[in-house]
Structure formats: C-alpha cells, structure tokens
Amino acid sequence: MEKQALNEKLKGMMVNSGALLEGHFLLSSGLHSGNYLQCALMLRFPEYAEFCGIALGKKLADLKPDFIVAPAMGGLIIGHEVARYLKIPFIFCEREEGEMMLRRFPFPYGKKAVVIEDVITTGGSANEVGILMEVNKVEWISTACIVNRSSGRNVLPSHPVSLMEVSFPTYQPSECPYCRNGLDLVKPGSRKKA
Fold this sequence. Notes:
The chain is an alpha/beta fold.
C-alpha cells in the first residue's frame, strides 16, 4: 500500500475509533500536548489491530527478527499482531518498582529482537526495553511503532520504523499554553485529571 493511502486508512481508523483526541494531556514523557493518540481505542477493534500488525510486519520482514518485544501496556496488542504476521514469538516487559523488567518470560539470549510500541514520542519506554535486551545478550535490531510523533527528537539509537509520522506540539509544563488558560490536565489512559 502506498504511503498516502496508508496514512488515509490509518487516519480513518483513528477517527472512527475515537483514538485521536484533543484537549490538554499529560504525556508519559512528562510533556503536555493539546493532542493525544490513544491507540488502544483503535486497537480494540481486531480488524484494525490486524491491519496495523500486517502493515508493520511487512516493513520489518527483511530484518528477520527472531522475536518481538514490547513495553506493557502500549506495545502489547500491536506487538502481538506484528509477531503473528511474522510467525515469531512475542514477549513483553513490565515496570517493577519503576524499572523495566522481563518478568514472565525467559531471556532469549543470542536472538535478534525488534522493540514495538504503539506511539513513540520520546522513545523512553522502547529505549528501556531495548537496553534491557542488549544488557542480556539480545541483539536489538530495530524499533517500530504505528505512529512516530517524535519529530526526530527521541532517545532511540536509530530512527524507528513507523506506519505514520505526525507532529503535535508538546510543551514543558512551565511553558504550556493550556496550563496558562486553565484547561484541565488529563492523563491519558486513566481519563482522570492529572
């Protein structure tokens, strides 16, 4: 599928599912934004998750990874769908006392991994997972996501593979125009005031 057609299809799925939100959001990076992509709302529809998994899997197939690894929660569904398309195992990492850990699976020592996220803003969680893999003798060959919203400003060692790139303005809390205007701050996922 050509890039423009893919972007239109993804935007349509995001709009139809309510995944593209507007307001005043606290991102996991600590930054504030007037836009948020709640990919879980899109991925709750199996046909959308399958579509994204196939499209991302096709972009990664030539790398020949041995398995897919994702940070919980954002990468769970899309990581599983990519692994299903590639017919390889999927594992995930979780936070334990603030640190990313592989708790439920043995380390696949000596294997090649792609780290998958739904959305990358700073790349912090994906980077933590990749570093955890490398420290444990796993080759981190790439990072991939549905949406890259980092505008090239992420902590990853290389540019992530993505289905779509978007650029929403983000702000430090001290410089946030939404804070100055008194708009309620929402932490996405919980839909609660931050």
